[in-house]
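I have a small job for you when you get a moment. Can you supply me with one protein entry, sequence and fold together? It will help me judge whether the discrete encoding reads sensibly. Write everything out right here, beneath this request:
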Amino acid sequence: MSDADRVVILGGHGKIALMAAPKLKESGYSVDSVIRNPDQTAEVEAAGANAVVLDIESADTGKLAELFTGAKAVVFSAGAGGGNPDRTRAVDLEAAKRSIDASAQAGVDRYVIVSYASAGVDLDRVDPESSFYPYVEAKHGADEHLRASSLNYTILGPGGLTSEPSKGSVLLADGAGDVDGTTPDDDTRVTSRELVADVMTHVIANDAAKRETVNFYDGDTPIAEAVK
């Protein structure tokens, strides 16, 4: 397998990344999963990926570019997990921006980031005093930085993440996370983590949704039909 068939996943021990690695492998890619904690190596390798120990919070653009060089795609699926505004900013915004710049520097054209369905509008509607606001700010900022880049990006915007198995089908939402102009109820605005892994694999393997944002929930339209 050539290096051009390599996908680098940042946040390699995350639930979505651990599901995406075997799916990407099945699609013919080798996967480098980047983790901060070496204790997670066995779990990452069990998912079929090569574990790369690197703290993306402190790794500079040059270090990331070195790792990305020659890869087919870079996936940003890392997150601070909320709770600490400083870490949220450091990982979800600053590390994401460096990884975008590093992809361009390394000549890796394809970049996929996991955002969330209403990231494009929440800056205007979430209370700045809310504990959720630093996350909104970080995701919005990272997405905007990516849109302003030269990369062939795909921004994935799932709803509330669940542990349900993927049905391989989606309900597409607009930039505000709405469907047909209305906000769906909370039960509808959910997305299986495995479905996110399926959509991620689909866009990389099929060069689909280039320079596009795909907001989606669990639904009834097959991925290949909905995401082109």
